Amino acid sequence: MREVRTCEFRDLGRTGYAEAxxxxxxxxxxxxxxxITDQLLMFxxxxxxxxxxxxxxxxxxxxxxxxxxxxxxxQPSDRGGDITYHGPGQIVxxxxxxxxxxxxxxxxxxxxxxxxxxxxxxxxxxRAGRLEGCTGVWVNGKKLxxxxxxxxxxxxxxxxxxxxxxxxxxxxxxxPCGLTKPVTSIEEQGCNVPREDVVDALARQFVKHFxxxxxxRDHIGRNACATTMETIS
Length: 233
Prior knowledge:
Elements: E1 6-14, H1 17-32, E2 38-44, E3 48-51, H2 64-69, E4 73-76, E5 83-86, E6 90-96, H3 106-122, E7 129-131, E8 134-139, E9 142-152, E10 155-163, H4 195-209, E11 214-218, E12 228-231
Parallel strand pairs: 1-2, 1-11, 3-4
Antiparallel strand pairs: 2-6, 3-5, 6-10, 7-8, 8-9, 9-10, 11-12
Helix pairs in contact: 3-4
């Protein structure tokens, strides 16, 4: 009999980047030890620019003094990818996921995260897709979502950032992901869907595409146990 695969989902809301990173590291260590099941953590960060381990500092177009005056933190990150912005109105997802129980294939993992977001956006009538040679999710040549991951002993961390009602002017301080291409948001695409609906669609598509049997939802908060178990058909 096949083992039932469960994903625990928590929406932790507005959380500083450093605190979210600490939560991820704790969850990764627990996942490596088999103490918890796979996780899907959702956040919204205050204004912060992060530079991935393969990033290029020249893609930061402002000094740290200018960023401070604009109320933006600058944080190096151990994720892959280049430079990106996180801030209010953006939905950030961090799967803590043991790829040994799915596929030991990093490229397939990234492509599947893209599919999760593409299909979630499709639920709201947004025809998003991929752009050849580029990672992420795109609409008419504009980047709607970025992906940057870290994998240690096949356990993932970091993940994706989807612009919902993001104030896009904050991208002026960087060359997003090292690409001189425009960015967009769900709101700019003319879709005024509530955040909770987008988060639910992402969680639903995540379970579908990664072939989980159950989604365990934590309705209380970051220190609480899951309270509801939903069977996915």
